[in-house]
Design brief:
- The complex is a heterodimer of chains A (about 475) and B (about 325).
- With about 475 residues, chain A is mostly helical.
- Chain A is built from 16 helices and no strands.
- Chain A has helices at about 20-50, 65-95, 105-125, 140-160, 170-190, 200-235, 240-255, 270-280, 285-295, 300-305, 310-330, 335-340, 345-375, 380-410, 415-450, 460-470.
- The longest helix of chain A has about 35 residues, at about 200-235.
- In chain A, about 60% of the residues are buried.
- Chain B has about 325 residues and is mostly helical.
- In chain B, strands 1-2 form a two-stranded antiparallel ribbon.
- In chain B, helix 2 (about 50-60) packs across helix 5 (about 170-185), helix 4 crosses helix 5 (about 170-185) and helix 9 packs across helix 11.
- The chains are: A mainly alpha (about 475), B mainly alpha (about 325).
- Chains A and B meet through helix 1, helix 2, helix 4, helix 5 and helix 6 of A and helix 1 and helix 7 of B.
Chain lengths: ~475, ~325
Amino acid sequence: MGSASILPKVRLQEFLEEDPALTRLIYEYLVWATVWLIFGTLVGLLVSIKLSVPDFLPYEWLSFGRLRQIHTNTVFWGFLSPAMVALALYVVPRTSRARLHSFTLARIALWLWNFVVAAGAVTLALGYSNGNQEFREYIWPLAIPFASGLLLHVYNFYQTIAARRIREIYISNWYILAAALWTAVLYTIGYLPWWQYNLGQTVIQGYFMHMGVGMWFTPFVVGLTYYFLPKFLNRPIYSYALGVLGFWTQMIFYSLIGTHHYIYSPVAWWLQTTAIVFSVGMLVPVWAGTGNFLLTMSGKWDTIRRSYSLPFIVVGVIFYGLASTQGTIESFRSANVLWHFTNFTVGHAHAAMYGFVAFLVWGGIYGLLPRLTHREPSIWAVGVHFWFALLGLLIMLFALSVGGTVQGLSWIAKQPFIDSVVKMAPYWLWRSVGGLLMVASHFVFAYNVWRMRPVGVPRDAAARVTAEVAA
Amino acid sequence: MKFDFHRNHFLLYNTAFWGFLVLSLIIAVGPAFRAMQTPPTPGLVELTPEEQRGRDVYVREGCSYCHSQQVRPLEMDLPYGRPSAAGDFVYATPQLLGTQRTGPDLANIGNRQPDETWHLLHFYNPRIVVPESVMPAFPWLFHVKDREEPGDIVVPVPEPYKPAGKVVVATRDVLSLVAYMQALRQPKLDLKALGMAEATPSGSPAAEAASSATDEAALGAQVYANNCARCHQANGQGLAGIAPSLVGDPVVTAADPTEHIRIVLEGLSGRRIGGQEYPGRMPAFADVLTDAEIAAVINHERSSWGNNAPKVTVEDVRRVRGQ
C-alpha cells in the first residue's frame, strides 16, 4: 500500500486514436440501454398514473402489481447495468493500456442480458414472478443467463486487467471488477433456495435488495467516476488514497446493512441493530467518495459550466452524498417509525438510482461518446435532457418525500387508513408530472445518442489498432 | 508476487471476493438458516392446497407491492392485529412481509374481514365498496356470462359496475384468493410469556391505555372507518346486497344496547333487515377489537347520521362479552 499516493494520478492522458471495433461495441450497448430506459420508464409512468386513475387500462398484463416489477427490473438490469458496462468497456482497457480481452464475449453478454430483460418483462406480465422478491423477480430460469452474462464480464475484465501494460491497477478497476465479483456472489446467494424458506427468505431479501444497490450500482458507478471526473476535468483526482479507503470500507460496511429494510420486523433484533450501526458506518465510503469528487471539482466550475457531461456528473455526485445519507437516517428506528412503508422510501430509491447512478452514467456517456465517434450532440438538446430529467426528479422527490411524510403522520395520528390514501392523491399526481418530464427527457437522450452514432467509423480496423497499441 | 493490492490483481480481487463472501455468510446466509429454525407459533395452521393456490394468485398479481403482512410492535400498527412473531411465518414461503403500505396490512385480514361476498366485490372493483380506493380492479379473475349456470358463484355486482345484461361469476382463482385472505389469521399469542409488551386486542392494557388516551369520539370514527365503513359505508347508508343501512336502524337506535353490542361481538347472518336479505354476513369483532373500541364504535353509530340513541359504556360491552 505504501506507494498508494504517488500512483497513476497523472497517468490518465488521452489516447488520441480510438479502437473502432470498441466504439461499435460500446455504441451497441448504449443503444440497447437506451431502448430499455425508454421502455422501463414508460412502464414506470403508467404505474404512477394508475395510482391516480386506478381503472386506467384495466388489463391483466398491465396491472399495477405486475408492471411495477417490470419497471424496476427493466431500469436496473436493462438500462443502468448495460450502460455502466458500456462505459467500463472503455475504462477498463484504457486504464490498463490493453485491448479488451474479448469482444465476442462482451457481445454475447449483452445479448444474454437483452434476452433476460425482454423475457423477464414478458414473464412478469404473464404473472410469473420469483415470489415478488424485490429486484430479483425474474424467475430462476432467467437468472441463469443473467448470471452467465455477469460472469462473462468478470472474466473479460479480469483478463484485460491481468494483461495490463502498467504495473498498478487503477482505482477505477478496483471498484468495477470488484462490483461484478460481489454481484456474482450476491446473485448466487439470492437465487439458491436452501436458506430461503419462510423468515430465512426475509433475511436474504433485505440482503439482496440492499446489496443490489450497494455492491453493484454504487461501486461500479463510483469506479467509473474515478476515471471520468479527472479525465473530463483534465486534472488528477484529489486523493487517490481516499479512493482506496472508500473501496475497503465499502466492502465491509455496506455488506452488513441489508436488514435495515426490515426494522421492527420479526427478523432477529441483533441483525436489525447491526444494520443500523453499519448504516452509519456506510457514511465513511460515501463521504470519502463524494468528498473526493467534490474536492476534485472545486475551482473548476468554469470548465464544468462549459461542458455538457460535467453538469450530469456534478448532480450525480451530489445525489450520491445526499441519497446515501438519507438512507442512513431512514434506518434509525425513530425515523423508520415515520417513513417505513410510506412513499418516502420510493422517493429515496429514485434519488439513489436516478439522481445518483443514472446521472453519473449520462455524464460518462456524453463525455465519452463524442470522443469516440467524433460526432457531437446539439448542446441545446443535451440541455433539455439535463433540465427535464433534473426538474422531473426534483418534482418527484418533493412529492414523494412530502407525501410520504403526510402518510406516516396520518398513521401515527391513528386516522382511518383510507385518509392516508385520500391525502396522497395530489402527491401522486405531482409524481406523475415529474415522471412525465423524466420520460420526455429520455426521448431527448435517445435522440442525442442517435446524433452521436458512429458514422464512418471503419468496421474492421484491427490492424490499425494493433499498430497503435504497439506504438 | 508481492503483497501489494495495487500491483497484484490476483491478491486484490481474491481479497474482495472472499471478503464479501465471508461477510455474506455471516450476515445473510447464517442468520437466514437460524431464522428458518424458528418453531411455529402455537396454533398456527398450515395453508390448505386451495389457500396456497390463492397465495400463488397473490404473488402473481403482485399484491405485496401495496400490502405488507407484518404488524410491528408500534402503537400505529394496532388496528392490524398483534405484533407479528417470527413463528407466524413458518409456513409462508415465498415470504410476503412487504415494504409498502399503500393499502392496509393484511397479516390478520382473515379475522378483520372474513366475508366472502365483500372480498369478491372488492376484487371485482374495489371502488364498489370503498369509493376512494386506489387498489386495482381484477376483472380477469371473474367470468362475465349471459346467464348463471349450475354451480356458479354469482357476484352481486351493483350498478354501474355490472356489465349490462350479464352476470359476473367468480373463477376458481378468485375463490382461492378469498380463501387465502380468510386464512390470514394471526394465532393468539401469549405475548406476556414472550416478554413482549402485550398488545393483543381484547382487554390488552396497551390497547386500552391507547384508547383512553384518545378522545372517544375520534376513536369511534377511526374504528368505524377501518372496520365497518367498507360494508356499511362512511355515511352509514350501507350497500344494497352487502350490508344494511344503520341510519335509523331499529337495533342501532334501540334504548337497550345489548343486541347492538352482541351483533358487533358475535357477528350476524340470515336476518331480514328492512325487508332485505343479505347474502354476505356481518363478521364477529370480539377477537379483533377491544372493549373500549367496541364501545366507541357503537357510540359512533348511535350518534351519527341523525341517530340519537343512548350511549354505551365499556362496562356494558364487558358485561355482554361475559354472557
